Amino acid sequence: MQHGIHPAYGPVVFRDRAAGHAFLTRSTATSDKTVEWEDGRTYPVIDVEISSVSHPFYTGTARVLDTAGRVERFERRYGKRAR
C-alpha cells in the first residue's frame, strides 16, 4: 500500500437520528462534530437518517409489493415476450 494517497481510516461513531441508536465502527468518513463514547474517549460522529436499526427491511415492517400485478400490467401494455 502506498503511503500518503489513502484517506485516514479510524474509529467513527454513526448515530441513527430516527432510532436514537449509535454504533462505533471504523471508517474513512470524517466529521467536525464529536461525541464522547461509552469508553470515555471522544470520537467523530456522523448523523445518518436511517440504519439497520430503523430500516423497514431489517425491522420486519417492510411491505410486500404486488409484483404479479405489475408484471401483468406490463404485459397488457407492451405485449408478452416472444420466446
Automatic annotation (TrEMBL):
Give the UniProt entry's GO cellular component terms.
Answer: ribosome
Question: Which keywords label this protein?
Answer: Ribonucleoprotein, Ribosomal protein
Keyword Membrane tagged: no
> Per its UniProt record, what Pfam families does this chain match?
Ribosomal_L31 (PF01197)
**SUPFAM superfamilies, from UniProt?**
L28p-like
Q: Which InterPro entries match?
A: Ribosomal_bL28/bL31-like_sf, Ribosomal_bL31, Ribosomal_bL31_B, Ribosomal_bL31_sf
Query: Looking at the record's lineage, which domain of life comes first?
Result: Bacteria
Q: How does it assemble?
A: Part of the 50S ribosomal subunit.
Question: Which family does the record claim for this protein?
Answer: Belongs to the bacterial ribosomal protein bL31 family. Type B subfamily.
Name of the protein in question: Large ribosomal subunit protein bL31B
